[in-house]
């Protein structure tokens, strides 16, 4: 799943792009909670703590001690919400909430204000409240990000139907769907990520407590990625199928990156409150690992269209070498099969459809048949899901070789507004407009 429909899983220790001005990572002297003790002779290495975008081959970066993982800090306030363009994080929680009976626009506004204030404090490395649980007492911010979004049902619950974007219309049905409605959709969505599990849990607990009488948890999913410093050098991470996952994610340096990923401030069909925001598609994709692991390495590579060892296309070269879709072997057969996942998901095979994939792997134990309940918490970002996720998924439905080995078990689509300025909260233009 290294290309477009299944999100990439770049390791968080891969070198990020330079941080943008609205979410640049402050230096260590600005950290105000717990500063990690420096360890003389630390042997672990980590590269590039916070800031850049996910999804492409890592560049060499200067190594720093593993103990600096906690120093990574992402700004809460800015043009875009955090947790979209930052590198993959080692631990994540995806949570959907429904407003409680009787709660409406006023209660939702108060909740988003509380959540934004809490997220801002935690991301700065501060305690959530004066009586904080102290779960993360000894850790730095650890590149914590907290991101908020609105589901389709939120607008009817708050009397804001006229402000609901057309792009938030429910996703169509797909043949690979086996969706559990109890673990799909929701009025509100929160994405939490960090490079430390306790820091991520601390944020999750604070967000849940802040919901109070306004909202209740609808569903929660927990995920992980490679821990910073786990590899000898920065590299694309592997998913639970053992594949390097995510070579062709859009890059911020590309001229059309913002147009593909973020809603423009003018000239779109979206309401003004979505300016500089994005749309998140969330899918819980179970990997049928017992079936997959019965395949030979060659058969697995034919399903994906890339070498398992280094992620290079079967047509040759390195991980970043452009795939030659016309190359044939001595017998005249296409080197990259027609139904290979990497072929089908290429943007140039889908009218330029692109999305920024930012996933977490998950493992929720072994079921009663002894089968692992494991796979991918797929999260992808785009300015318009009808031009990003939907056309690619429809094409995958028609003949992706990978479909035999995965099952989509939960789904959600959320409107994620732009970032909040200092003194404001996420969603304020919608809720107070």
Automatic annotation (TrEMBL):
<keyword id="KW-0560">Oxidoreductase</keyword>
<dbReference type="GO" id="GO:0005829">
    <property type="term" value="C:cytosol"/>
</dbReference>
<dbReference type="InterPro" id="IPR011008">
    <property type="entry name" value="Dimeric_a/b-barrel"/>
</dbReference>
<feature type="domain" description="Dyp-type peroxidase C-terminal">
    <location>
        <begin position="236"/>
        <end position="420"/>
    </location>
</feature>
<keyword id="KW-0812">Transmembrane</keyword>
<dbReference type="InterPro" id="IPR048328">
    <property type="entry name" value="Dyp_perox_C"/>
</dbReference>
<protein>
    <recommendedName>
        <fullName>Deferrochelatase</fullName>
        <ecNumber>1.11.1.-</ecNumber>
    </recommendedName>
</protein>
<feature type="domain" description="Dyp-type peroxidase N-terminal">
    <location>
        <begin position="81"/>
        <end position="225"/>
    </location>
</feature>
<dbReference type="GO" id="GO:0020037">
    <property type="term" value="F:heme binding"/>
</dbReference>
<keyword id="KW-0408">Iron</keyword>
<keyword id="KW-0349">Heme</keyword>
<keyword id="KW-0732">Signal</keyword>
<dbReference type="InterPro" id="IPR006314">
    <property type="entry name" value="Dyp_peroxidase"/>
</dbReference>
<keyword id="KW-0479">Metal-binding</keyword>
<dbReference type="GO" id="GO:0004601">
    <property type="term" value="F:peroxidase activity"/>
</dbReference>
<dbReference type="GO" id="GO:0033212">
    <property type="term" value="P:iron import into cell"/>
</dbReference>
<dbReference type="InterPro" id="IPR006313">
    <property type="entry name" value="EfeB/EfeN"/>
</dbReference>
<feature type="region of interest" description="Disordered">
    <location>
        <begin position="1"/>
        <end position="30"/>
    </location>
</feature>
<comment type="similarity">
    <text>Belongs to the DyP-type peroxidase family.</text>
</comment>
<dbReference type="GO" id="GO:0004325">
    <property type="term" value="F:ferrochelatase activity"/>
</dbReference>
<dbReference type="InterPro" id="IPR048327">
    <property type="entry name" value="Dyp_perox_N"/>
</dbReference>
<dbReference type="GO" id="GO:0046872">
    <property type="term" value="F:metal ion binding"/>
</dbReference>
<dbReference type="Pfam" id="PF20628">
    <property type="entry name" value="Dyp_perox_C"/>
</dbReference>
<keyword id="KW-0575">Peroxidase</keyword>
<dbReference type="GO" id="GO:0030313">
    <property type="term" value="C:cell envelope"/>
</dbReference>
<comment type="function">
    <text>Involved in the recovery of exogenous heme iron. Extracts iron from heme while preserving the protoporphyrin ring intact.</text>
</comment>
<keyword id="KW-1133">Transmembrane helix</keyword>
<dbReference type="Pfam" id="PF04261">
    <property type="entry name" value="Dyp_perox_N"/>
</dbReference>
<keyword id="KW-0456">Lyase</keyword>
<keyword id="KW-0472">Membrane</keyword>
<dbReference type="InterPro" id="IPR006311">
    <property type="entry name" value="TAT_signal"/>
</dbReference>
<feature type="transmembrane region" description="Helical">
    <location>
        <begin position="36"/>
        <end position="58"/>
    </location>
</feature>
